[in-house]
Amino acid sequence: MNTIRLNPLDTAWIFTETRATPNHVGGLLQFRLPADAPKDFMRQMMAEFRNHRTFTPPWNRRLKYAFNKNPAPVWIEDDDIDLEYHVRHAALPWPGGERELGELVGRLQSTPLDLMRPPWECTLIEGLEGHRFAMFIKMHHSLIDGISGMKLLQRAMSTDRKRSLDLPPFWASGTAPASRAGKEPAPAPTMANAAEAAVAALSGQARSLPQLAAAFGKMLKRVGDHGDGMVLPFVDSPLSVLNGRVREKRRFATQHFTMERLRTLAAAAGGTLNDVVLAICGGALRRFLAERDTLPEASLTAGIPVSVRPADDEGTGNAITFIIATLGTDIADPAERFQAIRRSVRHAKEHVQSLPRQAMEQYTMLLMAPTLITLLTGVGGRTRPMFNITISNVPGPEKPLYFRGAELLATYPASIVTHGQAVNITCQSYAGMMNFGYTGCHTSVPRLQRLAVYTADALAELEAAFLPAPKRIAAPKPRKRAGQGASKPSEKTTGKTPAARKAKAAPAKPKAA
Prior knowledge:
The chain is 33% helix and 21% strand. By secondary structure, it is of the alpha+beta class.
């Protein structure tokens, strides 16, 4: 029997999982039904899915625990898979809206996977308004990285609608992750990939020590001095309601904007697309916490997985690390907040890019060490946070994709919530849109959908600050291609309650939650 060893980080995802902190990632995929779809389209798809007995890696991998010389689990291939367990069906009371869909996904994301089986589940969801349906697919983080999992699903689709008609289910068209020894595309900038790079860097050479000493020496000199905009882990991250202990149940919300709108703002403000993402998240978090009277006096900080190239690296591959930057939540003016974020991100990137590649890998390892320790010891949520929230921004496919003739309208990532990190924001671009997925602890972060609503408000505030009125790109009209049939603009979220819309109408004095 062929076995595949887990690397140290993947093993940590297994050993640190608890009922309150399941370590799986998910993806919500929204589709538009084909124009000629029969009434039993979903029933047929469900039946075909459960009868398709061909499996490819990583979908057919399950854990085997060895207790002899090697106590760590390994992956083995298992073709005796119970598809009645792995493939599920759910229906919203028609017409299901974004709020109802978000509530269902929150419940699905709350339930741990069965680690005695291949650790994945696929739920087909019907009953959506506007001639739509959805799939929610979750996989354990030890099996695959969240963004890599989304890409795996996308590779199982087609850019041609006709060619997509006969595509097999996802688990029959997957491919095993490429060997790290061979030539492969650079990994996506996610926190898991940054942590994995840190673990791999443990075998680095001693010649990196001088550069590492200089890098961390610069940090130590910065303690108490906020002049250059550089943010220090732990030191500059205030205690907040986002960084305590979490409980089992999850909340999930979504938001999306056109890429054109975000890029226009970035150009006008003199920043990057990622600066804009951080700024609208910072503005939304400021209002969200202020409504609950829990906004810290010091600014919240974000852990941001990035792909950076060291100054002495002339190769073509990217290097994965992460930086910590301010979110400017202590600044009321949106323009000043944006500039503070832009400066902070620039300093953080310059600090990392000044290191040679070998030293940067060791630097990432040392920087990630506290996070890895909290994963293994369970002390998260009881100490001062290294940073307050993880915000990931990963590019996705630019062309529309199809599956069984149905157009993929949007993909929304659902990520891990754990002790010390009660909220995660992950966004991914797709076909001219930027899609945000907000995952939060149901207990410590109530009304998470408001955070998604306030993200749209924060974007509008930035546009008012940086763009003359004639140059602003209006939010698009109701997107017929999405079949949403609503009078709201394209920036639609899960959970736009009447109370949230009322709060949106008076952003200067939001009512207390």
